[in-house]
Design a protein that fits this description.
about 280 residues
Length: about 280
């Protein structure tokens, strides 16, 4: 499928907000698991991992785009979340930047602590150990990222194929290794593990490779959201205070990942010792 820009619109259901034109391409993610036919391209054709959608979320769409699209530029948005960006301006931005990401959300807790609202600490430890095993040069970048209080969510981006190719190779190789150790939850929310992790790994990859990033706010179509000025100001103040204590947060991070931490010892008791497997 050849086109200068293709932005997949990941969806699992019909919505009046789904865009479809020369740039936006609706993609039915998890199509192989769905009982409904949305009459859109599915992520179950060609080289695909559609069967993993319950755990990978929109990443089955990302994988399909990586393996089956030939466009010079590729992006990912959601049926109800888009970049606040005019179509005619997309190419202009891409000619002067490496990647477009969602404007970072500032949080009252670190990215690591925020992640623990969606997955187990053990899942995080496995991910970090796999990064250390496969891509040790990324480990410190990941530590610094998780100590800060912001995240560009939703796995939304627009970038060139030459950047997408190595990113997807990196991302899915980490998850392929993680699958050897992770014990997925049967709860629907918690089972979306790899989608949650990738929301952080995308930024880690960009920061480590010193990509030039253009941040754009997202538009949420299905909800009317009112800006809470006081809340936004308070979050910014707390973020700035947290940022001053990055070193302290990193020390706490090191404690979790210490071989003698309760989490790491618990993994060993479960027969999971990733670094030991590296040395065998």
């Amino acid at each position: 499928m050849k086109n200068s820009i293709t932005i997949i619109v990941c969806t699992h259901k019909m919505s009046p907000f789904i865009k479809k034109d020369d740039i936006y391409m609706p993609l039915h993610v998890g199509k192989v698991l769905s009982k409904n036919d949305l009459n859109f391209q599915g992520d179950n054709s060609g080289d695909n991992i559609s069967i993993k959608n319950k755990n990978y979320c929109e990443l089955t769409g990302l994988y399909w785009a990586w393996k089956n699209l030939n466009s010079e530029y590729i992006g990912l948005v959601h049926y109800r979340r888009y970049f606040n960006l005019k179509e005619k301006d997309i190419l202009k931005y891409l000619q002067k930047t490496d990647i477009i990401l969602v404007k970072p959300h500032k949080m009252i807790r670190s990215a690591k602590e925020q992640l623990f609202h969606f997955c187990l600490v053990e899942d995080y430890c496995i991910m970090m150990q796999v990064i250390k095993k496969l891509y040790p040069e990324y480990y410190q970048t990941a530590l610094k990222y998780f100590a800060k209080n912001q995240c560009s969510p939703y796995n939304m981006f627009i970038t060139s194929r030459k950047i997408l190719e190595p990113y997807c190779t990196w991302l899915f190789s980490i998850f392929e290794e993680m699958e050897k150790y992770v014990r997925l939850s049967s709860y629907s929310r918690a089972s979306r593990l790899y989608g949650y992790l990738a929301e952080n790994l995308l930024t880690i990859y960009c920061l480590h490779n010193k990509l030039k990033i253009t941040y754009k706010p997202e538009i949420i179509c299905e909800k009317t959201q009112k800006n809470n000025l006081i809340k936004n100001i308070a979050c910014d103040i707390i973020f700035n205070i947290r940022y001053l204590f990055t070193d302290i947060l990193m020390k706490r991070e090191d404690q979790i990942l210490s071989p003698n931490s309760s989490f790491m010892l618990g993994l060993k008791n479960d027969g999971i010792d990733i670094m030991k497997d590296t040395n065998q």
